[in-house]
Amino acid sequence: MHSLTSLHTFGLTAHSKQLISVDNDFSILEYIEGPLWVLGEGSNCIFLDDFDGSVIKIDSKGKTVEEFSDYYQLTVSSGENWHQLVRFCMQNNIFGLENLALIPGSVGAAPIQNIGAYGVELNQFIKEVVCTEISTGEKHILSNEECQFGYRDSVFKRHLAGKVIITQVVLHIPKRWQACNHYGELAKLKQPSPEQIFNQVIAIRKAKLPDPNEIGNAGSFFKNPLVSNKHYASLQCDWPDLPCFPVDHNSVKVPAAWLIDHLGFKGKQLGGIQCHPNQPLVLTNNGQGNGAELLEMARQIQTKVENTFSIHLENEVRLIGKKGLVML
User: Fold this and answer.
1) 137-170 pLDDT per residue, tens
2) Are residues 69 and 47 part of one domain?
């Protein structure tokens, strides 16, 4: 058995039958049998129990930059660190990703989740995603449209889940830069430069989110739910200070942290698991937690939010049990 405890940032004790590190040669995948989990930096998944299969740790490195008349094209290996890629772009005057600074994880994991922050989502910059079919070793190139991106969602979490491994991500970053500073605390910046946004995002994230090197966590545990305008209007009758962010003509996004905080979960502890006292959207592990306690805490939050607000919270973090994904 191979320990997985240090390979996911939540840090629950877990093992796998097999642990394989893969750099730039993915041919080994076609020989893997049984349950399989592909792991980048383990910042958006939690091993709740020993995994009864093989874990593939992606360590492939490398990136190339091509310059065109109105955009840069970056081809990046899936094992590269996401924040280091953003920092590399800033250092080379390639601007656009600064709102996504300090998001933990690898480049290969980023399209799966369609990472986003402060009004920007990764799918705005993706041209193609290169992946390898696990059963055959065949290479596929998926266009942006074929990736079927949604809010914290993609085809890699649905139809292609467990069938392919992302090996490269191809980004198109326009040379014509436009600040995106309308969201949250960034709205305080007046005519900011890319560097100012980059630095402010880092400062905000460091202030709001606990460092997984200090206490086990996987960032935001729940997604911010989307509700219809009609539902939101009815909620405002009882909770007039409930904030929202417009999404389209029919729906708004409600901060899950507000809902959780309003119900008194902030700081609540169950065994070794705690709802963070400063950021209730984050669940933490003090080093003594286990998978059963985490599921119980998450389900308590989910149930009370649904019973109170008629809103169903979905977990953003991917939960892995003995055989694979576990649903709340």
Assistant:
1) 889 999 999 999 998 999 999 999 988 999 999 9
2) no
